[in-house]
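Predict the holo structure. Ligand: flavin-adenine dinucleotide.
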Amino acid sequence: VSPELQYEANLTDEVGRVADPLAEPAERAEFRAMLRALVAEVAPPARTRELDDRREFDRALYRELAKVGVLGLDAPSEAGGAGDLRDQLVAVEELGRGPTSMAAFLILQYAAIKFLGRNGKTDEQRAVLEQLVAGSTLVSFGMSERDGATDLGRALRTRAELQGDTWHIHGQKMWTSAASDAQWIVVFARTEPAEGPSLDGISSLLVPIDAEGVAVGALDTFGIRGMSTCEVFFDDVQVPADALIGDRGQGMRQAFATINREGLLACAASLGVGHGALAAATEYVSEREVFGKPVGAFQVPQHWLVDGAVGLEAARSLMDRAAAVELAGGRSEVLTLMAKLLASETAQEITLKGMQMMGGAGYLNEMPMARYFRDVRLWSFSPLNNEMVRNRIGERLLRLPRSY
Ligand SMILES: Cc1cc2nc3c(=O)[nH]c(=O)nc-3n(C[C@H](O)[C@H](O)[C@H](O)COP(=O)(O)OP(=O)(O)OC[C@H]3O[C@@H](n4cnc5c(N)ncnc54)[C@H](O)[C@@H]3O)c2cc1C
């Protein structure tokens, strides 16, 4: 029995699993097991480490994921989609546990699918949606800019002007995931003067990455190195009027309508990393001996690991509640914020303590802990930083005065 299966078995017994309100139905558990086996075969730790070192996207894994329908989970059925939010959470968690950059990439593709599924009306936009689901095209998402992504409406400088039936785009995007591998970019640009709320007057446009005037440059990031993070420049890029996605001036509103989903997926990715790191650290300290007994026999490291396991179980419960509420069409924002906050901070803490209890071995790139430590930091500030997450919970749950 692998340590991971053992963990599940240790959590409760047969009777408990039947009674557990959060237990996975057989079909989803099978899907999880299939994905775990696929990742073990196609993206084993040594390959993930190699691609991370080379800062290279895992195309082979992406193709295999597309084949088994992972890209189409929760996509509109007319675009070839099947499955729902819970299946997406399973996929992102399983990838987070191993080749974490692919989890980050999937979150991006799911965001693009959701965005185009809801707002894409033209033939081209529907065709790109179908290709996304089939895994034959990649779309990047250009929202954030150099002057800040949290207070985006105010910081956004990229502008698009409609002259006749052509949009002219000028500006620069920052932190655009996978732009160097993608064929398309959804660009958020100001199309109306900034009067009133800063999120109004921004439109979204679907732009081919190879359009004249687009230039992509890779950024050198600390983590998530199996997916590029880019700057994208727009120098009088011209696209037809119907490149507009959804309603003019409503791009940010359209994006914010689906941002809750990204928070939940960030929670799932953090759970994946947390469990991967917990398993790696537990295995190491069970073997490694100091002063005549395993490191894991000492209270301090043992308590660190236990606190990690408790935090992950609590975060999973919050995530499942938020997902159930969202699937029922309820307001899930507060539960999602809580789930993302707890999962990201717990996973971050496990990797920090994991590095410590592994001593020099934790510092070696050949061990997965250093990569987990680097990768998981993304979700403490993205898609929304945890300070803003706390601000929102304070405002919406506790009805405290808005603090930002
Ligand atoms: C690897 C990677 C991939 C990314 N992919 C994409 C992508 O594909 N598309 C895209 O559009 N963006 C992407 N991003 C951008 C990401 O969403 C932003 O980095 C994130 O939203 C934070 O924005 P910022 O970096 O501008 O930080 P800032 O907005 O400058 O905030 C910095 C810090 O200030 C603090 N802070 C901010 N506001 C408050 C407040 N009100 N109260 C208290 N503290 C506060 C927080 O600690 C925050 O972390 C990516 C980023 C990375 C690193």
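The mean pLDDT is 96. Residues 108, 140-144, 148-150, 175-177, 221, 224, 229, 378, 381-383, 385, 387-388, 391, 404 surround flavin-adenine dinucleotide (CB under 6 Å).
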